[in-house]
Amino acid sequence: MRGTLVSKTWEWDPILYAPPRYRRACKYEAFIPGTLTDFDFDLPSSIAGVVSDAEQAIMTLNSRAQPAFAPLARLLLRTESIASSKVEGMQVGIRQLARAESRMETGGKASSTVLEVIGNIDAMQLAVDEAATAEKIGVEHLAEIHAKLMAKAPNSQTAGIVRRDQNWIGGNDYNPCGADFVPPPPEYVDSLLHDLCEATGDDSLPPLVQAAMVHAQFETIHPFDDGNGRTGRALIHVVLRRRGIAATYVPPISVVLATERKRYIEGLTRFRAGDVGLWIEQFAAAAARAARLASDYLEAVTALMEEWRRRLTAGPAPRADAAAWALIALLPAHPVITAPVAAAVTRRAKAAIHQAMRQLTDCGVLEPLSESKRNRSWEAVGLLDLLEGLESGRAPGSL
């Protein structure tokens, strides 16, 4: 076991409501993990090979990065964020989210679940842009990621606040007795988080091993009242970016974890039980699969963009500096787009954008989502079909 169990007594609080059978004290065991900075682990050669293969796949994915492909980087980050939310049961597909965001841009409303997924995207962006580039990771960075994640959640009052009460996973809603897992008592959380931050800045382990260990330890500490899973998966990408193997493109590891959710949870359980090697092997295999899947979809999206350009030149070709060309280059980051957003991201005048929208609609690159000319949005033809395949973990072109 990678830690110790401590016996605790849960005292019923008569101020809080509970059904009669929960209105009594009960015993439970909380798990206190061993620290990461003192952990000594020899990676078996068989697992080292899997780790090396996965790191190479992530570096190969990132070797394609160039400034012109920045919209593709945003596409992968959004896909990872949506999948991370899906692990937690938030079933918002990429098409549903893109259309909801478009409605919000024109003054419409979105569901609370959509708002939470948007919060996850914002948190992931903060993680890779700011936390990953900080000189040293501190608890404040974890709190900032969590605050961004939970800002639009129904329980936003807990955003960015490290818990001061006992939490638990599974069982009932009233006490931790009989829970599937009880994280460390609150008095241990601060020291464990400082240890985790120290381990996040330690480069002695291979990057993917470090990411696997940091993620599993964070999930074990469970330092927030809610949002731990999504914050913990954002930490994976903080480590990978800090270590330089995912400098631009995040491998959508959560896509794989979401399709194998039960096995993912079992892997975290094995980590706590002391079977660290099997957890690292499982994590590395998921990362390798995610990186190769992302590479395949980047090729597919690039090919789709070339098809859009061919369609645009099938009739009278726009001038080389026309807004339509600039818009095609940015559509992967905005698969459903409005004219105001198109003007903002291309930095073109309103008249030029409206002309570009007409040209791209006429040649079949954009499809209007309504007949109304007020608050109209357009969908990039074929793009969301591709992204739905990536979101589900299927190879491009497979059913």
Write the layout of secondary structure elements.
Layout: E1 3-10, E2 26-33, H1 45-62, H2 70-87, H3 94-105, H4 112-129, H5 139-150, H6 186-200, H7 207-221, H8 228-242, H9 253-259, H10 261-273, H11 276-312, H12 323-330, E3 336-338, H13 339-346, H14 350-362, E4 366-368, E5 377-380, H15 383-391
Antiparallel strand pairs: 1-2, 3-5, 4-5
Helix pairs in contact: 1-11, 2-4, 2-8, 2-9, 4-5, 4-8, 5-8, 6-7, 7-8, 7-11, 9-11, 10-11, 11-12, 11-15, 12-14, 13-14
Rg calc:
23 Å
Strand order of the largest sheet: 3-5-4
Number of E strands: 5
Supply the CATH superfamily name of the largest domain: Fido-like domain
- Give the integer mean of the pLDDT values: 92
In the CATH hierarchy, the architecture of the largest domain is: Orthogonal Bundle
Overall CATH class of the largest domain: Mainly Alpha
Taking the alpha carbons of the first and last residues, their distance comes to 42 Å
Which structural class is indicated by helix and strand composition?
mainly alpha
Uncertain segments: none
Order of helices and strands: EEHHHHHHHHHHHHEHHEEH
Oligomeric category: single chain
Tally of separate helices: 15
3D shape: globular
What does this 3D model show about the protein?
The protein has two domains: 293 residues, Orthogonal Bundle (Fic-like fold), CATH 1.10.3290.10; 76 residues, Arc Repressor Mutant, subunit A (Orthogonal Bundle). 55% of the residues lie in helices and 7% in strands. It has 15 helices and five strands. A hairpin with an 8-residue loop joins strand 4 and strand 5. Helix 2 packs across helix 4. The longest helix is centred in the C-terminal third of the chain and has 37 residues.
